[in-house]
Write a structure and sequence with these properties.
6-stranded mixed beta sheet; 5-stranded antiparallel beta sheet; single chain
Length: 294
């Protein structure tokens, strides 16, 4: 079986709980299902299902564990094939158990991995609810041409470096990217603003600075945010995504960065699973690695 990639949206959202005094008009106080599902080119689908937690409370590992939804009937269909996923448990290094659904290892003969250009339907039956959503793994859209680094221009950041990429956009409008970075073989993490589109740069070749990915469960040092260190080996995970996936992460990233800002406009995170929070997204992934010399 392929090495598991576990979506951690639930853990990320749990880590952003705040204790500020705020006034928010909550439209619904009842628990809702939260879904994060992905299918990448060459990989099997991965889906996590949980119940929503109170954003404005301190969330414990016990509450997080209890929020996972078990014994759901989860299927993914490519149109020609349908495969029922199986629930698995993974114990993390910090002692937190994560539950996820992916292909049944006993049924690998009928399983299928993601392919660019194909659409996939996710269906979930859980706790009396039936949910469904469709995503597409895009064909080649924004093309990753090259990747390089530049030393920081600030004297007090002499050991820091920025990473940039050159990207080419095709003439057709409507291309979207989400990216992650990995430092020295550690897990892939998104930047605070992890998506961009071709609205302004359509049909051109352009340079993009990439922020180093961050763990949103940890306090972020904004004096050094976005930089890598000299000596780092940096791997970029560059993902063409569909519009719904872009919209979800565009609004989710904004909601995270706006937390605590009294002047920020309230934002509704735009998912694509009617009746639930979250999203089902297809990723066309390209990897590129560089080493920043000391």
């Amino acid at each position: 079986m392929q090495k598991a990639y576990i979506p951690l949206m639930l853990v990320i959202l749990a880590g952003t709980a705040c204790e500020k005094e705020v006034t928010v008009d909550l439209q619904s106080k009842e628990d809702r299902l939260v879904v994060e599902g992905i299918i990448e080119n060459g990989r099997f689908p991965m889906v996590t299902i949980s119940r929503s937690l109170n954003y404005f409370s301190r969330i414990t590992p016990e509450q997080l564990l209890e929020s996972f939804v078990h014994d759901a009937v989860v299927t993914v269909s490519s149109g020609a094939q349908t495969h029922q996923l199986r629930e698995y448990r993974m114990d993390t290094t910090n002692g937190i158990a994560l539950y996820y659904y992916t292909v049944d290892t006993a049924q690998l003969h009928s399983a299928f991995a993601g392919r660019p250009g194909n659409s996939y339907t996710l269906k979930i039956e859980a706790e009396g609810h039936t949910l469904s959503a469709i995503t597409t793994i895009p064909d080649a859209g924004l093309r990753l041409d090259s990747m390089w680094w530049m030393q920081s221009g600030s004297n007090n950041l002499g050991e820091k470096a920025r990473v940039l990429v050159k990207v080419t956009d095709p003439p057709e409008r409507g291309n979207y990217v989400r990216y992650f970075t990995s430092r020295n073989g550690e897990r892939f993490l998104p930047g605070l603003n992890s998506v961009f589109d071709d609205h302004v740069v359509n049909g051109t070749t352009f340079d993009v600075p990439l922020d180093a990915g961050v763990d949103k469960n940890q306090k972020i040092d904004f004096d050094t945010y976005g930089y890598f260190r000299k000596g780092d080996t940096v791997t970029l995970k560059f993902c063409n995504v569909d519009h719904n996936t872009y919209d979800f992460w565009r609004t989710a990233d904004f909601a995270y960065t706006a937390t605590g800002n009294p002047f920020a406009t309230p934002t509704r995170t735009l998912g694509n699973i009617p009746g639930a929070l979250g999203y089902w997204g297809g990723y066309n992934v390209t990897y590129k690695t560089i080493t920043i010399p000391k």
